[in-house]
Design goal:
Blueprint lengths: L1 H44 L8 E2 L3 E4 L5 E4 L2 H14 L10 E2 L3 E4 L5 E4 L2 H8 L26 E3 L3 E4 L5 E4 L2 H14 L8 E2 L3 E5 L4 E4 L2 H9 L3
Antiparallel strand pairs: 1-5, 2-3, 2-4, 5-6, 7-11, 8-9, 8-10, 11-12
Length: 226
């Protein structure tokens, strides 16, 4: 009888370990999927650590099943992608999440750029120079590679100087993005771009706040973020 109990216990323990291993593998797969897809988005936009720009959230993403979601941060994006992968474990990996145009970014000098299409994104990418190494330099294969990390995110309220010399103060990222897009739509041929009015306050990777006094300080902050 004791031998039978021992055999049963060993069998049960083996099943338990196998189940735990499967659950752990599944969680790792979901986390890896989310990290890889975010890194791909950063590489395409040259944003995050090692890139020239930072995304201005929120942004919208089309999931591989066609559902559109809005995400407010990289952490929020990672959770959404992990949850989607968990619910779609056998999805075709050739179909990748895509961001929805337009997207808004801010460069190393506080210039905001609204990008309305893939063609505009290609043109903006050519402006990216990191450490003097020309276009597409930086941490990843195309200059992003932050793997879900950002050098900083803008804190509100903040003011924006538009090319027509008007200044507007915004209480939220969403309000600013709407105004940037409205301005671009009304001024499609303008070569000027809206710029942040310094000083600005940013939140760093460790959650602390920093007041940035000039475009030169912002450029240094971005350059030091590797």
């Amino acid at each position: 009888m004791n031998k039978l109990i021992l055999v049963f216990s060993i069998f049960a323990m083996g099943m338990f370990i196998q189940a735990c291993t499967k659950d752990s593998s599944s969680l790792n797969d979901e986390s890896t999927y989310a990290t890889e897809e975010i890194s791909e988005i950063q590489n395409r936009t040259l944003t995050g650590k090692g890139g020239c720009f930072e995304l201005i959230f929120p942004i919208s993403i089309v999931l591989p099943d066609g559902v559109v979601i809005e995400v407010s941060s990289y952490d929020n994006m990672k959770k959404a992608l992990s949850d989607w992968k968990k619910n779609n474990p056998d999805a075709d990996r050739k179909i990748r999440p895509e961001f929805v145009f337009p997207i808004d970014i801010v460069n190393q000098e506080g210039v905001t750029i609204t990008i309305a299409s893939k063609e505009e994104l290609i043109a903006v990418r050519k402006e990216c120079k990191v450490d003097g190494h020309g276009p597409h330099g930086g941490g990843g294969p195309h200059g992003g590679g932050g793997h879900g990390k950002e050098c900083f995110k803008l804190s509100f309220p903040l003011s924006v100087l538009f090319p027509d010399a008007t200044t507007t103060t915004f209480e939220s990222s969403k309000a600013m993005k709407e105004a940037l897009r409205a301005w671009k739509k009304a001024n499609p041929t303008s070569t000027g771009r809206p710029e942040l009015v310094f000083p600005v306050t940013v939140t760093l990777q460790d959650g602390t706040s920093k007041t940035v006094a000039s475009k030169e300080e912002l450029a240094k902050l971005k350059a030091d973020c590797k």
